[in-house]
Write a structure and sequence with these properties.
Elements: E1 6-9, H1 15-28, H2 40-53, E2 57-62, E3 66-75, E4 85-92, H3 101-115, E5 120-126, H4 130-138, E6 142-153, E7 156-166
Parallel strand pairs: 4-5
Antiparallel strand pairs: 1-2, 2-3, 3-4, 5-7, 6-7
Helix pairs in contact: 1-2
The structure holds coenzyme A.
Length: 176
């Protein structure tokens, strides 16, 4: 099924599809600890900032369903010394989960991280999110930490696992 899906760089007009998938996860899952759906204006600002700063946003597209998944690299921290580290996001539309779309997105996303000269990519995952943990493990992410009860959603405390994948990092002349 997943071979009907193509993965490409996102365009501004994909933001509506990206937003719909994210907001569904906000309302129905603990994948995100947001409680309220976000607006299209917020998502467009997010997209423009990613374009400006060179952080990849990818979409998985299917002929009849349109955007069925998306993935992004995000700035991990504003302080300059963290600039070779990013945090990733990956979200698949509910009907398409478990069909290989997440894996189709994460491969090219890690290629983009490599091309950017990143040294580390972090995945910050609800500790009970087995699908996301398995997906990231498949791409070489290792669990480096567990933050206990740092989240609260749907009336319960949530643990967050940090998974990390190291990459070669910047070329020598880009390091300073
Ligand atoms: C997590 C998510 C991105 C994974 O994408 P996906 O397309 O469903 O996953 P894939 O079909 O590519 O499978 C990836 C791995 O997860 C496993 N998996 C998929 N669904 C699973 C489930 N419900 N339970 C346990 N493992 C699952 C697959 O077996 C596969 O593992 P393997 O490589 O060891 O065989 C997707 O399920 C999703 O969008 N979930 C809601 C949002 C979310 O949790 N985002 C991540 C936030 S950190």
């Amino acid at each position: 099924m997943s071979d009907e899906v193509t993965v490409r760089r996102a365009r501004r007009e994909d933001c509506e599809g990206i937003l719909a998938i994210y907001n569904h996860a906000v309302l129905h899952t603990t994948a995100s600890y947001d409680y309220e759906p976000r607006s299209l204006a917020q998502r467009l600002d997010w997209f423009d900032a990613h374009e400006r700063d060179g952080y990849a946003v990818l979409v998985a597209e299917q002929a009849s369903d349109g955007v069925v998944g998306w993935a992004a690299l995000n700035r991990f921290h504003d302080r300059v010394g963290y600039r070779f580290t990013a945090e990733n996001s990956v979200y698949v539309a509910e009907p398409w989960r478990g069909r290989g779309v997440g894996a189709r997105l994460l491969g090219p996303l890690m290629d983009a991280a490599h091309s950017m000269g990143l040294r580390a990519v972090l995945a910050v995952i609800d500790a009970q999110n087995e699908a996301s943990i398995r997906l990231h493990a498949r791409f070489g992410f290792e669990r480096v930490g567990l933050f206990r009860q740092v989240g609260f959603k749907f009336g319960r405390w949530l643990d967050v696992a940090y998974m990390e994948r190291l990459l070669p990092g910047p070329k020598q002349d880009g390091e300073s």
